[in-house]
Specification:
The complex is a heterotrimer of chains A (about 220), B (about 650) and C (about 300). With about 220 residues, chain A is mostly helical. Chain A is built from seven helices and no strands. In chain A, helix 1 packs antiparallel against helix 2 and helix 2 packs antiparallel against helix 3. Chain B has a domain of about 45 residues. The longest helix of chain B has about 35 residues. Chain B is globular, with a radius of gyration of 26 Å. The chains are: A mainly alpha (about 220), B mainly alpha (about 650), C mainly alpha (about 300). Chains in contact: A-B, A-C, B-C. Chains A and C meet through helix 1 and helix 4 of A and helix 13 of C. Strand 4 of chain B pairs parallel with strand 1 of chain C.
Chain lengths: ~220, ~650, ~300
């Protein structure tokens, strides 16, 4: 093990597997928060942008990605009392195996790219790809809107990490813009879902409730 | 008939044994009016032939070398036979298992009313033995195909021994189709060889082009795989084995399907193409067959069907070893190659021993209780001590546990696979999957055979039939004891058997340097020592137990029912429920359908439960091949008008068309 | 002679450690807990008693305890306890040991099914199921170790400072391996969260329900066998957690004992703070160990290459 960042990233890989196997939304959000934190601090470790602006941007990213978004979704889940994803399209055991395959595939694929960061961290690109595809997998394999949002954010984490690997200067501005969009998106989705839930409850119709939650 | 002899008397001894077997087979129908005499004559003559063949094959294996023999018939059909160490290895297995199964048949076929049918059974059995021996001894394409066809046909007739039941006829038909579609693939593989070389010899195949070799190998793998029962070509096995009489199932599952393995070995050797593609194909097929075979086995309710699925599993293990050997050859690792191949070959022998033992045990259960349905049996160990104990030994062996023979071959395959794990690329990935696959197979086989022994032989009888069972018939018990003894012997003292397998491999000349045997001898020696240590510990504990129980009071009472005072045999855990949770893990590959009426009301009516595990190969093969083909033929029905004049017209047309081509 | 000097006390101390678990649990429950030598008392009591056999049983029922204890004892002979040389070692002994434990499991299950009790059948089915995934995990771990050392013996992995070498080459992913192995330990030895050895409802047990009908010295053998098995797994974990060779056997032994205490205490803590999983959730939990081992292998290979 050469680099500290690889150790942290290996935990991110695990968190992907964990999020695939987790039926509890709280667990999923914790995994997501962890990914968000790691993804935001990775630029410090691989050595570029230790400028004041860079640090500021990274810290803000950390705040939003690692704390604000997960916290917001967490609170939302508490409010609508959705705790579990009960009927995934692809079962949890199957998802775990898919996750393992995904990581292997990401490792194999990332060898084909030559990215500047490969000299410092071997796991950066594989993790980024795994996050990206893993998020898509969650979008595909889960039924509930909430889980799908979480998948979408996972995917976004991956995109950010891909950006980091390419070490382009001043990419923070663009990334930051995207991040704010995501934040806004999450909030809007939360509001909409909550309203749907309220409508459903007042209408007494139970059948389509399970897009948000069904215990 | 001309004959050329290469080496001494030995070949003649081989043919002498075959003649003796043929004689035994022909004598049986002649004496069919005197039932016991007929059986006595048939069994003695056939056994003598088998023993002779066994001695001959054994000596050939020990002395090594290659024995050739050629017949030319009308200068057109040349039959060549060649026995090298690989053939001798298979011959030893064939004769040994057939010998045991013949003794078994003496008391197993005990219905004097069916004397004629039984005598014909002996005749066909003799043909099957001869053809199996000739298949592994064949030296050219023609000899191989002729023997192969006799083998398929004689075994087909043996499967439909009980032709009165439509289920058995259907099983026979399925087997017939599979063995002939398989034969067609083999034929096309050979046709490609003949087209390139213009000769019928096997040796010339090495001169084929790269692409042709690939095609030949893939065709022959499909063909031989359908005989061996490789997933997804295995679907005839679970139908045919239960249909056949048990001693025939023992031979078919124990040795006949191994001729497919022999074919793959032989094709690999004669093609002399050491590409990793072959190894990858064989190893992947092995992993899939191994895991799915045992998963489906776990879901079966019929004892013989369950054992048939275990053949699929074990063929998988054999192929895994073979694939690892091939990968070892292609990546230039002679030790890995020898470990893989030797493990594979040894597993051929081991599987034939424990599988025929298990089928014989199942046959005994079937004969004495009249059923082979697992969930209505139980408690048989108390009435059938020898059958139960030998079956237990067979179960331990098939689960690959030390100190029994199944462990030895799996151990060697493991060692080979671990050698592959340090390599890179596809070899690494497949070796890794192989090891994990083998581990999972081991665990599942353990689950499956604790289910079988636990539900069939232990606990309380679940039906009247199981209650009144006995185990009369010395001729049936003797071979089971012999085979169980062989399981233990190979497990404790594997050295000569591993060396035998390595010798069999060496005769293939696979293009790697000869490697010293010391390493392998050291492995077997340490296995023997480890097992001895284990036995010593068991003895020590046993002594301690005797000591602790001296002048103690032991009483017998009923099983503690956790507070429930009126337990019945029906409350026992059944095989289906035992397997249910494991099967649910494999739901995507083993879909389960359940039938049970809903329980209603306070005083519900009598209810039932039935579950069936679907074999995805069977399901998809039906949808993807059978239905489209039937639809196509349906559309072509207009050709067959049922009018004889039209048919004569067709013949005429065909002749005229052919005339233009000649 | 050293191997014997270590082996005999190791076996004799195997019943001591589980008392630590009980103590820790008692501490969490605010109780005093049983004496530290409780398991010795239990064994002595069991060995003094006679037995009651069910009329349904056969000789397999008596064979079961003997075989499972012998398997566990033989397995320990191959293990470098506290990093000292094992009694035996040969190429591939890892496989032999794992399959030997499998043999023990076969007989435990067979003995359970011998009683015709529906409860024991239920436990047996679970005992047959969960270790399958454990085996996959264990083999995955040994593939990684083989890749790192090129050897396939327990001695080459755990003898002296060999584990340190593993840490040096593999680095942090070995932490995953340790976690995975700990999960295997919990599963194979029927501890919380897979099985609750202290529960009162037979329906929810795995190991305990399988041995319901055993009594007297037979039951003593079973208890001893499960102590040895737990000791086996804990000893491996302890070698991975504390990979150092302190240079003197006595010091090694002292350090080893300390780490063992900590591991058993950790098991106790887990049992105190966690609830048992619902039976259908267990496979996923065990599968996590496989995922851990797999990820560790993949990541390590990326670096060792």
């Amino acid at each position: 093990m050469t680099h500290l960042v690889d150790i942290i990233l290996s935990f991110v890989l695990l968190s992907i597997i964990f999020s695939f196997g987790s039926s509890r939304l709280q667990g999923l959000i914790k995994a997501l928060a962890f990914q968000g934190v790691v993804v935001s601090i990775v630029p410090f470790f691989i050595g570029h942008d230790i400028t004041e602006g860079g640090v500021l941007f990274s810290l803000t990213t950390l705040l939003i990605r690692g704390i604000a978004i997960p916290f917001y979704i967490y609170r939302f889940i508490e409010k609508v009392a959705a705790h579990r994803e009960l009927e995934p399209i692809i079962g949890y055991n199957g998802s775990i195996f898919t996750g393992l395959l995904l990581i292997v595939a990401a490792m194999a694929v990332s060898r084909k790219f030559s990215v500047p960061s490969a000299s410092t961290s071997l796991l950066l690109l594989p993790t980024a790809i795994s996050l990206l595809v893993g998020g898509m997998f969650l979008l595909m394999a889960r039924r509930k809107a909430i889980t799908m949002i979480l998948g979408y954010i996972t995917m976004e984490n991956g995109i950010y990490l891909v950006g980091t690997t390419f070490s382009v200067r001043a990419h923070h501005i663009v990334e930051f813009g995207i991040l704010l969009d995501v934040l806004a998106g999450v909030m809007i989705m939360a509001v909409i879902l909550q309203n749907i839930k309220l409508k459903m409850q007042s209408g007494g119709e139970d059948t389509s409730l399970n897009i948000i939650s069904k215990e | 008939m001309n004959s050329t002899r290469a080496k001494g008397m030995n070949m003649d001894l081989f043919f002498l044994s075959l003649v003796l077997i043929l004689l035994g087979g022909t004598l049986a129908p002649i004496f069919n009016r005197r039932f016991t005499l007929m059986k006595l004559i048939a069994v003695i003559t056939l056994c003598a032939g088998c023993l002779l063949g066994l001695v001959d094959a054994g000596s050939k294996l020990i002395h090594g070398g290659s024995y050739r023999y050629a017949f030319a018939y009308l200068n057109a059909l040349s039959l060549e036979f060649q026995i090298d160490a690989l053939s001798a290895f298979f011959l030893t297995t064939i004769f040994f298992i057939c010998f045991c199964s013949l003794i078994y048949s003496f008391h197993y076929l005990n219905n004097a009313e069916k004397a004629f049918r039984i005598s014909v059974n002996y005749m066909l059995f003799s043909l099957l033995m001869i053809s199996m021996a000739l298949v592994v001894a064949a030296g050219n394409i023609i000899a191989f195909l002729v023997s192969w066809e006799i083998m398929s046909l004689s075994s087909f007739f043996l499967v439909i021994y009980n032709y009165a039941s439509s289920e058995n006829r259907q099983a026979g038909r399925l087997y017939f189709i599979f063995s002939h579609v398989g034969a067609m693939f083999i034929l096309s593989a050979f046709a490609i060889i003949y087209q390139h070389t213009g000769k019928f010899g096997f040796i010339d195949a090495a001169s084929l082009s790269h692409g042709a070799k690939l095609l030949v190998f893939i065709f022959s793998f499909i063909g031989f795989g359908s005989k061996a029962g490789v997933f997804p070509l295995h679907i005839w096995l679970p139908h045919a084995h239960p249909a056949a009489p048990s001693h025939i199932s023992a031979v078919m599952s124990g040795v006949m399907i191994k001729t497919g393995i022999y074919g793959i070995f032989r094709m690999y050797a004669i093609l002399e193409l050491h590409t990793p593609v072959f190894g990858s194909i064989v190893l992947s097929a092995g992993i899939v067959s191994g895991i799915l075979g045992v998963v489906y086995a776990l879901g079966q309710h019929d004892l013989k069907r369950l054992l048939a699925y275990h053949s699929v599993e074990n063929i998988g293990i054999i192929l895994m070893g073979m694939g690892i050997g091939m990968l070892g050859v292609s990546s230039g690792k002679p030790v890995m190659a020898v470990l893989g191949f030797a493990g594979s070959l040894l597993h051929v022998l081991n599987h034939s021993i424990f599988k025929s033992l298990l089928f014989m045990g199942a046959g005994m259960v079937l004969q004495k209780t009249g059923t082979s349905s697992i969930d209505v049996l139980g408690g048989l160990l108390k009435k059938m001590r020898i059958t139960g104990t030998t079956f237990l030994i067979g179960s331990l062996a098939i689960a690959g546990l030390p100190p029994f023979n199944g462990f030895i071959s799996e151990f060697i395959i493991y060692l080979g696979a671990f050698k592959g794990v340090v390599l890179t690329g596809m070899t690494f990935v497949l070796s890794l999957l192989g090891i994990v696959g083998l581990a999972v197979i081991g665990g599942l086989a353990l689950a499956c055979f604790t289910k079988v022994t636990g539900v069939v032989f232990q606990g309380e009888p679940r039906s009247r039939a199981a209650e009144n069972a006995d185990e009369k018939g010395v001729a049936m018990l003797v071979p089971m004891v012999i085979l169980a003894g062989a399981c233990v012997m190979i497990g404790v003292y594997p050295e000569p058997f591993i060396l035998m397998a390595i010798r069999g491999i060496d005769s293939l000349n696979l293009g790697y340097a000869v490697i010293p045997l010391e390493g392998f001898v050291a492995i077997t020696g340490s296995l023997t020592r480890a097992v001895t240590a284990f036995f010593a510990v068991v003895l020590g504990i046993f002594a301690l137990r005797v000591f602790l129980y001296r002048d103690k009071i032991t009483t017998r009472s009923s099983t503690w029912g956790c507070g429930f005072t009126r337990p019945t045999a029906k409350m026992q855990y059944t095989g289906s429920s035992y397997a249910a949770s494991i099967l649910s893990f494999f739901k995507p590959v083993a879909p389960l359908s359940e039938h049970h009426p809903r329980i209603k009301g306070i005083f519900p009516e009598e209810t039932h439960y039935f579950s069936h595990v679907h074999d995805i190969a069977e399901r998809y093969m039906k949808n993807l091949t059978v239905i489209p083909v039937m639809a196509l033929f349906d559309k072509l029905r207009w050709i067959q008008y049922g009018d004889i004049h039209l048919y004569i017209g067709y013949i005429l047309l065909a002749i005229i068309v052919l005339l233009f081509f000649i | 002679m050293t191997p014997i000097i270590i082996f005999i006390p190791a076996i004799l101390s195997a019943p001591f450690f589980p008392a630590i678990i009980l103590k820790v649990k008692a501490f969490f429950g605010g109780k005093k807990g049983p004496p530290l030598l409780i398991q010795y008392y239990t064994l002595a009591k069991l060995f003094k008693k006679g037995s009651v056999y069910s009329t349904s049983t056969t000789y397999i029922f008596k064979l079961g305890p003997m075989v499972s204890l012998s398997a566990a004892l033989t397995a320990l002979m191959f293990l470098p306890i506290s990093g000292a040389a094992p009694l035996f070692s040969f190429k591939g002994d890892v496989l032999f040991v794992l399959y030997l434990l499998g043999l023990g499991r076969f007989f435990t299950i067979a003995a359970a099914l011998d009683t015709a009790s529906p409860f024991e059948g239920m436990g047996a089915a679970r005992e047959a199921y969960f270790p399958i995934i454990c085996e996959a995990t264990t083999f995955m771990i040994f593939i990684l170790f083989y890749r790192l050392t090129g050897e396939l013996t327990l001695a080459s992995f755990f003898y002296g400072n060999h584990p340190l070498e593993l840490w040096r080459v593999a680095g942090a992913p070995l932490a995953f391996v340790v976690t995975a192995f700990f999960i295997v330990l919990l599963t194979e030895n029927a501890r919380v969260p897979v099985d609750d050895p202290a529960t009162h409802l037979e329906l929810t047990m795995i190991h305990e329900v399988m041995v319901l009908d055993h009594s007297g010295p037979d039951f003593g053998f079973i208890e001893m066998g499960s102590f040895c098995k737990l000791f086996f797994y804990a000893a491996i974990v302890s070698r991975l957690v504390f990979p150092f060779d302190l240079g003197h056997p006595a010091m090694n032994l002292a350090a080893f004992s300390l780490i063992m205490l900590l591991i058993y205490a950790a098991v106790g803590v887990i049992e105190s703070v966690m609830a048992r999983y619902r039976m259908d959730r267990v496979p996923k939990f065990v599968l996590t160990s496989f995922a851990l081992a797999f990820v560790a292998t993949i990541i390590t290979l990326e670096f060792v290459k």
